[in-house]
Design goal:
There is one protein chain. It contains three helices and six strands. It is elongated, with a radius of gyration of 52 Å. The chain has a six-stranded mixed β-sheet with strand order 1-2-6-5-4-3, covered by helices on one side. The chain has two domains: about 140 residues, Metal Binding Protein, Guanine Nucleotide Exchange Factor, Chain A (Beta Complex), CATH 2.170.150.80; about 70 residues, no CATH class. With about 260 residues, the protein is an alpha+beta fold. About 15% of the residues are buried.
């Protein structure tokens, strides 16, 4: 294809890098692709590699030939002008289904010279063919051992921004709102003072049927509620006897429980 489609992201798996790209490069050194560049990793520092890549934002891919440290040896030359790539851990096998197709090696870049180099955060994953497609079965390709590499800069955990913690300050309690002021006139207060609340006994009325004339049930001085209306001279005297009889009856049932 002449160019990549809009929004294209190159995020191949380990198996795809080996079977779809590295295998073609090993079989044909002239193989080219728009997503993987070709570079000599010994001539460039890792922070210069993003500018040499065909594409990538956080990861960059390259084809390169593993250089020999010695002409007659098998050790790989991984030194650059300012440092070197050092392998870490063991190689991991890459499978396609149940078939072994390659190996994955992890390397970290160190500034300076071994063994006193300073470790950096630049990491490289190097993929090589293994199994039936490896160079051990193609001796005519042994001088050009192609590999494909994924290079990226790892962000250390210490530089990641910690979550923002908001510490609650010891705040003084909020003042309570003032109670609403009740405005009442003097005449209304005097009217409330003159209201009598009637209290009824909870005892059954049959308790007092045979003891209405007993002086023990009558209060010494029964409280007389104010009259509901004023009576004239003769009417007041006529009603006096009836009101006394009614109050005598109420005194047994009402006022005895209230006082």
């Amino acid at each position: 294809m002449d160019r990549l489609p809009p929004g294209f992201r190159f995020r191949p798996t380990d198996e795809e890098l080996i079977t779809h790209y590295l295998a073609h490069k090993v079989a044909d050194a002239g193989f080219r692709t728009l997503v993987i560049g070709e570079v000599d990793l010994n001539k460039y520092e890792p922070w210069d590699l993003p500018l040499r890549a065909e594409m990538g934002e956080k990861e960059w891919y390259f084809f390169c030939v593993r250089g020999r440290k010695y002409p007659t040896g098998l050790r790989t030359n991984r030194a650059t002008r300012t440092g070197y790539w050092k392998a870490t851990g063991k190689d991991n096998a890459v499978y396609r289904g149940r078939s072994l197709v390659g190996m994955k090696k992890t390397l970290v870049f160190y500034r300076g010279r071994a063994p006193k180099g300073e470790k950096s955060n630049w990491v490289m994953h190097e993929y090589r063919l293994e199994g039936k497609c490896s160079l051990h079965h193609h001796h005519h390709l042994a001088k050009n051992e192609w590999v494909v590499c994924r290079v990226f800069h790892k962000i250390p955990a210490s530089t990641k921004k910690p979550p923002v913690m908001i510490k609650a300050e010891a705040a003084s309690p909020l003042p309570r709102p003032p109670l609403p002021t009740i405005h009442a006139s003097a005449s209304r207060i005097n009217a409330l003072d003159s209201i009598d609340v009637t209290c009824f006994s909870t005892l059954p009325a049959a308790t007092f049927d045979g003891n209405l004339d007993d002086d023990s049930f009558a209060p010494a001085e029964p409280h007389r509620p104010p009259p509901l209306f004023a009576l004239g001279g003769d009417d007041q005297q006529a009603a006096a006897g009836g009101s006394d009889h009614i109050l005598a009856l109420l005194g047994h049932t009402i006022w005895n429980d209230c006082y």
